[in-house]
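Hey,

The postdoc asked me to send both predictions to you directly instead of through the lab channel. I've kept everything plain text so nothing gets mangled by the mail client. Protein one:
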Amino acid sequence: MFPIVVLWAHPRSMSTAIERIMRERGDFDCLHEPFLQYYYAKRGDRELAHFSGQCGHPSSYVETRDLILQKAETAAVFVKDMSYYVMPELFDHGDFYRRIVHCFLVRNPLRAIPSFYRLDPELTCYEVGLEAQWQHYSRLLDAGIVPGPVLEAELVQADTAGMMRRFWRMLGLDYRDQALRWDPAAAPEDWQYVQGWHRDVTSSRGIRPPAADEERRAAEAFEQLCRDAPQLRDFLDHHLPFYRQLQQVSLKPRAQTMEM
């Protein structure tokens, strides 16, 4: 059996860009949110915007889990998915969770929530996703499992090469500089059924560094949205403690001289 590395994210956390990097490595069979269809077909209480289902894809937890295990029989597998799709089922249906290298990605919800809202104004507090991530991380510790690295989107954006180098090293993978850039004309076929969510990364050539005033603009944009959607402030207040808990255990940058 080959390794299964899963990046557990929350919506609008830059996870698709990290997935694209992992695809560009060329040494993983990559899956894009395989549990999404299960969640919105069986557990979610609403329809997700820009998503109408993927024909032929499993729509049950067990079938999706088995699809991943089957792929791992012939190749190393990388999965990008959301903790809120699988909590608590991941820990309540056998020991699949012990078969996975669990990595996490978080982004400041002050940025993630507005990005989600602009694409889907019907988002719920639960779908913000950071609470489920922290529950997921905590359940791993309770089970005696040491989680894999936790990435912060802002740190990856500021130093993509340095942070991916550290991330890969912790996973026992070699550094591949060519994976940090891609051809925007060659978007993965399995992104097509949710392409409305991934226009930015599809049209880009890599992760863009942050603008000098990005933090200020993000705060202003959030305040502007809250005038019409005051519930977003409640969503932020609810998820900030979970975000900060995950920040405390996240992978931090090192001085360049220490990475050589």
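Protein two:
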Amino acid sequence: MGMETPGLDSLIGVGQAIELIDAVSVTPRSTLKPLRQALGLRLAEAVMADRDYPPFDKSQMDGYAVRQADVPAEGSAPAALKVVGEVAAGQWSDRPLEPGQAVAIMTGAPLPPGADGVVPIEQVRPGPAADQILISSGDWRRMVSWRGADGKKGQTVLQAGQLIGPAQMAVAAMVGTGMLRVWDRPRVAILSTGDELVEIGHPPSPWQIRNSNNSMLYGLLRQMNADVVDLGISPDRPDDLRSVLRDGLMHDALLVSGGMSMGKYDFVPKILQELGVRLMITKLRIKPGKPFVFGIGPRGDIPPEVDEQAYAEIARAPRPPLGSAGSCYVFGLPGNPVSAFVCTVRFAWRLLARLGGGPVIEPWRDGILQQDLPANGPREFYLPARMEGEKVYPLNWRGSADLFTLAGAQGLLVRPENAPAIAAGQPVRILHLAES
């Protein structure tokens, strides 16, 4: 079941792989969510104002509501106004303000009829009578938030595609939208393969290692705002793999690590094809991460009990259009953890962002190299690096299984294919990671 070893010339480059993945159409799934469950999701439809905001002429501060016509001209003596009432926030006065009158008013309270200005309490002095105040010249209309100044009824206050954060939640609450139509989180299954793997709680034998990939993928996918289903570990046996891969195809996306190369026990690509997955990418000119697979299969429509001939017929049968709502997007990742990490952040993330209704915004940063680097080989190279502001320090990376070095990196320094040697002090491009 092994595949022929391809030469580097037969592998596709990173740019071509990205073009292929980005060209695949995806169908985000919209759903209605209670407001507080929509945090971190993107709006599938706009939110409109249900009335004018503010809904009334509102005082911006504590003071006195007045008629601007009663305010003395600049250079004139203060004017004495009679205080005829008080309006607190949450109250309403329907008594019109007459010439020569004022009403005490609190921040957020509606202006009484006839008032068109608010004199801050700090600008007011006691008048000659107990019920009078003295006010000086000024344009006190600027202390009023006028009805509809922030937004008119029917105006879009949150755009479709906008990410829901705390401020957006507040806006939705203010306009009375308790249920939001949002793009749902992609449902992604993760699976590790290999007889050499054991789960965290099981002591490994001298020839085994603990399964670190699923924990890493879980963390990456949660950062990508996906819902994650952990399918655990599958041994390198075709029947076991076929069963668990079928389960994985029930989801929007499936990330499988291990079993992607050309060894005797690398069964995954062939079984994926038997299950109806069309493989669009099978090998890449990337370091680390060459044994990478990307394909699209039918989501959950493979019968549970079929023989090998039936699988072959399923694989040959016409499938739904690429990226249709019935598709599962499959990313086959190398078993070595740093390779799986690089391929997930470089390729899988792009498609999952679109599945969540969002744009593809790559976290690139520019930096200045702090040590010399030799010429690069024929594969695009992603080197873990430490970042201090704009300073970039390549780390002493020991290979695609070196998780300890990756855990201390803030970015991946990208070296193009066949890039010449580069000296310290030169600009470099960094794929930024979460701070560590």
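Summary for protein two, as requested: Confidence is low (pLDDT under 50) at residues 1-6, 301-323.

Thanks,
C.
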